[in-house]
Design goal:
Layout (H helix, E strand, L loop, with lengths): L10 H19 L6 H13 L4 H8 L3 H14 L2 E6 L2 E9 L1 H25 L3 H23 L1
Helix pairs in contact: 2-5, 3-4
């Protein structure tokens, strides 16, 4: 490495792992018709139930425009129902329909063998990895507050 080379930090391999995982998920989930991004939104709605699109975006750390695009795909498939928020008539509340929940379960059945394989590869370090990633997320949040407000 020379003085003019950018620093190679622990974040670079993390970014590569993220991209590798997203590509792998896209391939594994392809038979379900869902992308990794779609699967994340379905999983978030399955986990939190009803939510505003902004809450889904915040939960998944996705840009609101990305959530809007995914929601358009879900609506096209008949996988999401939308109602008005009683506390703010302009806002929408989203929830998976039965067909959406079934599509999520199908994708989950494709995802689970991959998860099992990854857990077996990581072994006893799975818990430490999860804790480390949670600590990294907290550090990122604090850095964001400090550097961009």
């Amino acid at each position: 490495m020379t003085d003019s080379d950018p620093p190679y930090t622990f974040l670079f391999p993390l970014w590569i792992a993220y991209r590798s995982l997203q590509d792998l998920l896209d391939q594994v989930l392809a038979p379900s018709g869902l992308s990794a991004e779609d699967f994340a939104v379905y999983s978030a709605l399955a986990r939190i139930g009803e939510a505003r699109p902004s809450a889904v975006a915040e939960f998944l750390r996705l840009p609101p425009t990305t959530v809007t695009a995914v929601m358009a795909r879900l609506r096209q498939r008949g996988h999401v129902a939308t109602t008005r928020d009683a506390s703010d008539g302009r806002a929408k509340i989203l929830r998976l329909t039965r067909d959406g929940a079934a599509a999520h379960q199908h994708a989950l059945s494709l995802f689970e063998p991959l998860l099992t394989t990854l857990e077996a590869q990581i072994g006893s370090r799975t818990g430490a990895l999860g804790s480390g990633l949670a600590a990294l997320q907290q550090a990122i949040d604090r850095a964001a507050e400090k550097t961009i407000g």
